[in-house]
Design brief:
By secondary structure, the chain is mainly α. The chain has one domain: Up-down Bundle (Four Helix Bundle (Hemerythrin (Met), subunit A)). It is built from four helices and no strands. Helix 1 packs antiparallel against helix 2, helix 1 packs antiparallel against helix 4 and helix 2 packs antiparallel against helix 3.
Length: 134
């Protein structure tokens, strides 16, 4: 589905690894959807994806705080919004209101890739500029 490449690198080994794991978790969910896995399995995969994303966001925000990134507050709001949207999808799916769908998967994939390339690259650039001045 999506492959991590150096184009997604934020020049931080831990955060790059976490991004790769997010891609793998999303791919696992997509493959489960494609192979017709049962609802319980898809719910478990979605919970794993959400839990991992929350942990990653916490690590990322701690890094931004350490480097005194001025965009931390707005970045954190984006993270919170994503978790809320995905939790809403999950609750509606568990309640039988919506099917697990490729649209949900593509929303998550698009959000993650766009977020890394647009938002995360800002703190990466900030960090590299500051490191160059030290």
């Amino acid at each position: 589905m999506i492959q991590w490449s150096v184009n997604y690198s934020v020049k931080n080994e831990q955060l790059d690894q976490e991004h790769q794991t997010l891609f793998a978790a999303l791919d696992k969910f997509y493959e489960g959807l494609k192979s017709g896995e049962g609802k319980q399995s898809l719910v478990q995969l979605m919970h794993e994806l959400i839990d991992y994303a929350k942990g990653h966001f916490s690590n990322e925000e701690a890094f931004m705080k350490r480097i005194e990134f001025p965009g931390l507050a707005s970045h954190s709001i984006e993270h919170q919004s994503f978790v809320k949207q995905v939790n809403d999808f999950l609750m509606r799916y568990e309640a039988g209101e919506i099917p697990a769908s490729y649209e949900i998967t593509h929303f998550i994939m698009d959000w993650i890739t766009r977020h890394i390339k647009r938002e995360d690259m800002q703190y990466a650039k900030w960090y590299l500029q500051r490191a160059g001045r030290m």
